[in-house]
Amino acid sequence: MYDTVESTEPGLAAPAASDRSRWLALVVLCGGMLLIVIDATVVNVALPAIQRDLGFSSSGLAWVVNAYLIAFGGLLLLAGRLGDLVSRRRVFITGLVVFTTASLACGLAQGPAMLIAARFVQGVGGAMTSSVILGMIVTLFPEPREQAKAIGVYSFVASAGGSAGLLAGGLLTQALNWHWIFFINLPVGVATLVLSLRVLDRDKGLGFGAGTDVLGAVLITAALMLGVYTIVDPAAARGWTAPRTLELASVTLVLLIAFVVREATARSPLVPLRIFRSRNVTGANVVQALAVSGMFGMFFLGVLYLQRVLGYDALRTGLAFLPTTVVMATVSLRFAERLITAFSVRATLLSGLTLAAVGLALFARAPVNGVYLVDVLPSVVLIGTGVGVAFPALAALAMSDATPSDAGLASGLINTTTQVGAAVGLAVLATLSAAHGRTLAGHGASAVAAAAGGYRLGFVVAAALVAIAVLIAVTVPHRMERRSSDSKDIFGIEERP
Prior knowledge:
Layout: H1 19-42, H2 47-54, H3 58-85, H4 88-108, H5 112-131, H6 133-140, H7 144-175, H8 180-183, H9 185-199, H10 214-238, H11 243-265, H12 279-309, H13 314-320, H14 322-342, H15 345-363, H16 372-399, H17 407-442, H18 447-473, E1 480-482, E2 493-495
Antiparallel strand pairs: 1-2
Helix pairs in contact: 1-6, 1-7, 1-9, 3-4, 3-5, 3-10, 3-17, 4-5, 4-9, 6-7, 6-17, 7-13, 7-14, 7-16, 10-11, 10-17, 12-15, 12-16, 12-17, 12-18, 14-15, 14-16, 15-16, 15-18, 17-18
């Protein structure tokens, strides 16, 4: 067993007993992240089987995904800050217990209501587990070179897990049945939990100080949950300008404004607004939102193109994205840290985003009689390379100004941005591609040709979103150095030309 030492400084995890135990802790943290990320996509390829078995309606089936997204996206920021205040280790472990238990309930579900409720609880556990991981990593690895390498491993798991989920979903659904896409979480979750108890160092939270910002917690959680719900249900089903969509969006905006006012005046704010003074934190989150919105098109539109246009089954679809995972692993684990160290975070980020934008643009050809080696493989390889280069740089940038007392908040913030960006990207790309497909069908195109035409437009928009992210990434500082290590004034940076 590895000894754990409790830190005497609030918000700061004690150093690991050895290099070996620190890297083992990273493996455990990434194992927890992989469990969450795979579950986010593993369901997609099993949806037709779930619908047949449990009798879901077409509209009800979407809630198998939406219930998870609403809880997950809505609670990430709150869970990350709770990690700072209570204990990141405790929040991580509690999240694992909740997620694993909910996975068992999902697998045992015999009707739509039980599955949707269990998926919501899964989202709660997923938010708790994933929100604090980056904060724990930057505390475990304070030395810049090691931190870049550790973040590269984390970024590979976080990005490649999506394609791994598609493959796992296809294999389990065809070889066994859809219940096993949830049952498989049990042994993995239990193993990760046991290792977490042994390997992760205990840490003390900052405490609640002058009081708990209950009102701020309620406002931000309600705003994020309602915002994600508005994106994944009314906006996607009825359109962005539908009265119901506009009503919910207005309420979301009011809640967000009320939250900002509350945080600016609270004695002990849940989210200190000083975090947004850093151009690195703000810039990284904006770029992340745009990049994820665009890159999500590879999985969403790519799966639809392969299955509905080229006629792939679930297993072949998963295998088609396997090169993405291989390329991401090679780039993230072997080259990302070297590139960041040798050049700069910004240069590495710009290179990765550009490659991803080119890959999405190539996918925009999407012919009706496409050939995998010519029309799909080059795109997924370029996108995989771009993600493998860009996402470690983005994670490093988002955490670059975070001190131990705010690391959980910064981690929760970048994860929230990722989930909201993915939800927005899904809604925008789905709406535009479906509407364009219907227009083409109305002009006499066949069903397959109309679908392919809709996906082409979606890929063009996805590429444009990533291109905008490239332009914004140019504005982030090239290098920075801290002027103060005081946790009350940590975001002053001195830029170098």
